[in-house]
């Protein structure tokens, strides 16, 4: 392993960007956070002396190059609305052109299991075929193919090295886009847990803060580049068990509102995001479970948070947010 220069987090304001930034900061490393709007970046990173805040326009080649100027490594976390996945490949194409022109040496895409399609058997290693049967899977596959094809691309005396780090579904404290967030919110607010069904099929989740130290390590591991890697969770768990543990922490009997594929189709008539969830529902009925023994062999043992501990952290954060919200509303009501 070797030390590296400044790392840039493109699309930094989301949950993954914040946990990776925390790991970089904990390692005493300077980093740059890049996003479309300054306000959310200031809110998330303005307190950290290691952070440099930069805004960009990912549709403008000059803006991409300027955002990447002086960086040694770029970590790509740029999201798009769930009903606009066709934007992923063209966004990636422009970004790769910009970072190459800027002389960036390393590029990491935080990826998903979508490009695999259905698992032939579980757990799967990196040699599993990438045969997506969904539109979203095909767009993600096109995106990561662009990244892998850019490995070795030269700009002047600099050659770009690339890798894809593939994650399962994630969860953690106050992560709104997590499949499990409706469980923690429901328990914290004294309501039913809102979940997508089926709820009794074992599923793999990763506690999102665990990815930060792994990504920080990969930024300074030259041998990791030129391929994709898996980072797995701590085995599998059913959503029903997550609900049971969470509501036990709340001291309440577990209650759920389950939206299965049929309900998603009905809701999708009125909500485009719900409509988009239908094609990916196969991941709940036929989960993809990752084997990350190759990554462990490369970088050594990986610290992972148990489901019991992760669920407790996520619920406590949701309960604290709920009590703060109640207090704020109370003050507002008195003022009125």
From TrEMBL:
Residues 10-217 form the NAD-dependent epimerase/dehydratase domain. PANTHER family: NAD(P)-BINDING DOMAIN-CONTAINING PROTEIN-RELATED (PTHR48079:SF6), PROTEIN YEEZ (PTHR48079). This is NAD-dependent epimerase/dehydratase domain-containing protein. InterPro entries: Epimerase_deHydtase, NAD(P)-bd_dom_sf, NAD(P)-dependent_oxidoreduct. It comes from Paraburkholderia haematera. It comes from the Bacteria.
């Amino acid at each position: 392993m070797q030390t590296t220069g400044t790392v840039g987090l493109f699309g930094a304001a989301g949950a993954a960007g914040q946990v990776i930034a925390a790991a970089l900061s904990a390692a005493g490393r300077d980093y740059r956070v890049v996003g479309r709007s300054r306000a959310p970046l200031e809110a998330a990173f303005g307190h950290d002396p290691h952070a440099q805040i930069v805004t960009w326009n990912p549709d403008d080649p000059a803006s991409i190059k300027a955002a990447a100027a002086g960086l040694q490594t770029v970590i790509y976390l740029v999201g798009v609305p769930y009903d606009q996945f066709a934007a992923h490949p063209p966004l990636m194409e422009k970004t790769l052109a910009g970072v190459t022109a800027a002389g960036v040496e390393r590029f990491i895409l935080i990826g998903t299991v979508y490009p695999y399609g259905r698992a032939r058997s579980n757990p799967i290693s990196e040699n599993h075929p990438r045969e997506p049967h969904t539109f979203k899977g095909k767009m993600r596959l096109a995106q990561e193919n662009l990244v892998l094809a850019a490995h070795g691309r030269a700009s002047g005396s600099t050659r770009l090295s690339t890798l894809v780090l593939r994650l399962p579904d994630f969860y953690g404290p106050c992560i709104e886009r997590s499949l499990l967030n409706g469980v923690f919110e429901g328990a914290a607010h004294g309501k039913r847990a809102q979940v997508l069904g089926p709820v009794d099929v074992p599923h793999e989740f990763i506690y999102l803060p665990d990815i930060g130290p792994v990504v920080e390590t990969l930024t300074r591991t030259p041998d990791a580049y030129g391929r994709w890697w898996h980072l797995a969770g701590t085995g599998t768990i059913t959503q029903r068990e997550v609900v049971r543990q969470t509501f036990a922490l709340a001291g309440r009997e577990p209650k759920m509102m389950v939206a299965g594929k049929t309900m998603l189709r009905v809701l999708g008539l009125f909500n485009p995001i719900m409509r988009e969830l239908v094609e990916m529902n196969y991941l709940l009925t036929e989960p993809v479970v990752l084997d990350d023994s190759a990554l462990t062999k490369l970088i050594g043992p990986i610290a992972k948070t148990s489901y019991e501990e992760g669920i407790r952290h996520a619920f406590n954060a949701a309960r604290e947010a709920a009590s703060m919200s109640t207090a704020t509303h109370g003050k507002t009501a008195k003022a009125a």
